[in-house]
Amino acid sequence: MISNTKKGLVPKNISAKAIIKKILAGDRVSLSRAITLIESSLYKDQILAQEIIEKCLPFSGKSIRIGISGIPGVGKSTFIEALGMYLTAKDKKIAVLAIDPSSERSKGSILGDKTRMEELATEKNAFIRPSPSNGSLGGVTKKTRESIILCEAAGFNTILIETVGVGQSETAAHSMVDCFLLLMIAGAGDELQGIKRGIMEMADLVVINKADGSNINQAKLAQGQYQNSLHLFPANESKWRSPVLTCSSITKSGIPEVWETITEYIDIINKNGYFTKRRQAQTKYWMYENINQSLLDRFYNDTEISKKIISIEKAVIDEKMNPFHAANILINEYFNK
Amino acid sequence: MISNTKKGLVPKNISAKAIIKKILAGDRVSLSRAITLIESSLYKDQILAQEIIEKCLPFSGKSIRIGISGIPGVGKSTFIEALGMYLTAKDKKIAVLAIDPSSERSKGSILGDKTRMEELATEKNAFIRPSPSNGSLGGVTKKTRESIILCEAAGFNTILIETVGVGQSETAAHSMVDCFLLLMIAGAGDELQGIKRGIMEMADLVVINKADGSNINQAKLAQGQYQNSLHLFPANESKWRSPVLTCSSITKSGIPEVWETITEYIDIINKNGYFTKRRQAQTKYWMYENINQSLLDRFYNDTEISKKIISIEKAVIDEKMNPFHAANILINEYFNK
């Protein structure tokens, strides 16, 4: 089912208690409405959203959270559909969320196009939610992180977070998932071209997609090359050496192996304590991220500051004002009014 | 000359005007005292420092700013001494600054040990300043950035910024230099092991140090390998393809070529406009960095907040409180008191 942000908004006078009860019963319309509250910029919606999140929190956490990243063109949507269909067939309940701070400009290119994931969208055990269509990266990721909690409370036990291929979204996704999967394709020419090294370093699993037809050999070749590259990175705290797999989202070959590898990874980090450690670190990180984001948002959204900052920034760029003094002027204005 | 932070503090009742006049005349004792003011945590020193920086600003900017980075053991100090001696012999005026947020713990391991750079330290055309020994990374880099302005106003036309080999210091240094030089050595075994890819990506120039004696062949081999790695990165906005050189800080072989390459690079980016563009972007970045840093510092140094945050963080880690709600509680407390 695709969650719709346009219609089905929250009816007037609905109580947090009523929504929570329905979410915990697995009602997807209520889940959808609650996420709409999270995404709302209205103060009263925010209050209601916070109450719902807090009450759902004790029922959350019992899922595997998987980040799926890769540059445009690697076939993230078809991969998610293939993996999602494989999992719903195994009676898993799948929620697909997205982090795409650019979606306002691109008008929902990510997960927003309903012709994508057509098959998965009709599955009763799948819940697909487009990326919030407004806000900064910080704002969007906060909303995604909060949505995870509600999806888990509604009984979804496998959360897939899709990101677009720009560095910061990946870092944001990495900070909220248990397993970070990097999707790639075998390119003509240089296999590593254009891939930021920082993203490969974060990957718990690399999957070469489109390993089908005449592309199979090239995919196998790329697999070897990426595997060599990954060997250059020191093993991280999880003690897991990130493997490289190949798959085809069309023929479905390799999809079961992707899932087996994910569960093997989760199993290992569950046993050695890294799973819990990572989740605790993420929770702490999110508290501080949220504080920092709030402090900055309040400052930059301040009416006086946002008026004044334009001319001050210009003076700084034109070398008429020291950037440190400029900052002091604005900070003093903000706190002394 | 090594600037001393311990003695020679600013005499009482000295005016900003008097210090500025002496700095502009190239007086290094006054330069040193002004940097001490920048590093001071006293409010009245900060006010005086801001005035000096602002008045010096029109006389700053006319230098080449070079960041020098590399993991411990690559020989940064001896390299800086060799390059510095080469440049002072060419009548350049060299200032050596440092970014090392860890220097409080390591008690000034970086540039703080006066037995290092002994030769350069006695040069009248060299000014060596240890890293500020307290404060967060944000604080330390702010002080370094402000010190650059004063050194330039005092007539130093080549600024070398040394960093320790941990990711964030490099990013900070990169945001204040015209040329970012990564120093490496030919290692036994895997040449790329342990080097964060993000730092290689920032390098405008990679130099393999210790290319002397029986090490020369290995250094040449490493040069080829690093050059191949760098070819994988797309050329950045400067249109410059980062080269890999070798040198020996002991025999001095390769040092002139390092300088030639730096000047060639500066020449190219001066002509294609990237130099100015990068400096403007840096200035703007520093204004916002300073605002953001101030907002966070004020919050986390708030007496009430710093008391309360410990127990709230614990509740969050123990999953007794939602990290978003925790943040809201603290933010509301901060703004409503």
Keywords:
homodimer, 337 residues, 13 helices, 11% strand, alpha/beta, 7 strands, 7-stranded parallel sheet
Order of helix and strand elements from N to C terminus of chain A: HHHEHEHEHEHEHEHEHHHH
Name the chain pair whose interface involves the most residues: A-B, 49 and 50 residues
Give the quaternary arrangement of the chains.
Answer: homodimer
Number of strands of chain A: 7
Fraction of residues in H or I helices of chain A:
40-55%
Strand content of chain A: 5-15%
Summed over residues and divided by their number, the pLDDT of chain A gives a mean of: 84
Main sheet makeup of chain A: 7 strands, parallel
> Which structural class best describes the helix and strand composition of chain A?
alpha/beta
Rg from Cα of chain A? 22 Å
- Principal-axis shape of chain A: globular
